[in-house]
Design brief:
The protein has helices at about 1-25, 40-60; strands at about 60-75, 75-80, 85-90, 95-100, 105-110, 120-125, 130-140, 145-155, 160-165, 170-185, 190-195, 205-210, 220-230. It is an alpha+beta fold and about 260 residues long.
Length: about 260
């Protein structure tokens, strides 16, 4: 009886252990394996996405150079005022800042940038962000203001220039620009708005402007004050001598023979 019970227990354990193996064998059939995705197709899709991203970046980011005056500046950014609009500049540690000092190009740092500095910025402009990422910044040297006073000796209406004889004996050429502000003074009206066409030879003028580089005794005028002819100087027109015929070009006239009466 004991042997029969023991045999029944062993048989039950054997059946129980064998059942999971059959189930696992059924679930692990080769037909149930998923098909692998093509590696080449995945790489092609990734390449297409990269190309699309690069094209989008090229369309929105362009090389650009901007000139303007600094309105505000911090360690990481600056705002410069141009003729058309204000532009935000991104500043990083890689930016090269230079300035001509005593005739030599000198390397500076971002900390040397100050409000009201005139600068030229080279970098990449992001149209989407409306941001110029600076790579090189050149600080323009401040223009030195010069003044001149004297009597107007000549006016060139084609070149828009004045020639002034100063009290010191210098002859100065003055360039009149579109931005030049011209005013006139008289005893009756005081200072009023003037103009290039109203200036006359013999008038006394005060000029404020900047020197023209590499040219002596020449001023780019920012302001002109015309005092009129307060010295009583007369306008003497410059006469151009008429060309004279040379001796070789003179026409020779031969005397005509005198007719004698017939007998």
């Amino acid at each position: 009886m004991k042997h029969a019970a023991l045999f029944s227990a062993i048989l039950f354990i054997g059946i129980a252990l064998n059942s999971p193996r059959q189930i696992l064998a059924q679930t692990a059939s080769p037909s149930a394996k998923p098909k692998p995705v093509s590696t080449e197709s995945a790489q092609l899709n990734e390449l297409k996405e990269r190309l699309a991203t690069k094209v989008a970046e090229l369309r929105t980011v362009v090389k650009k150079a901007v000139y303007g005056t600094i309105k505000a500046v911090s360690i990481t950014s600056a705002t410069i005022e141009t003729k058309t609009k204000d532009i935000k500049i991104e500043l990083t540690d890689d930016v090269n800042v230079t300035q001509m000092i005593s005739g030599k190009r000198t390397a500076l740092a971002i900390e040397n940038l100050e409000a009201r500095d005139n600068i030229t910025v080279f970098g990449t402009y992001d149209e989407t962000l409306d941001l110029l990422k600076a790579q090189v910044i050149f600080i323009e040297s401040p223009a030195v203001t010069v003044r001149a006073s004297g009597t107007i000796a000549d006016i060139d209406e084609e070149e828009f220039t004045l020639t002034i004889n100063t009290k010191e004996g210098r002859t100065v050429t003055v360039d009149i620009e579109r931005t030049t502000k011209t005013t006139a003074w008289s005893k009756e009206d005081g200072i009023v708005k003037g103009g290039f066409s109203k200036i006359k030879v013999g008038d006394t003028a005060h000029i404020v402007g900047t020197s023209v580089p590499k040219t002596e005794n020449r001023i780019k005028a920012s302001r002109v004050l015309d005092l009129g002819n307060i010295t009583g100087a007369k306008s003497v027109p410059v006469e151009t001598p008429a060309p004279t015929a040379s001796a070789s070009a003179a026409r020779r006239v031969s005397p005509r023979p005198t007719a004698t009466p017939e007998p």
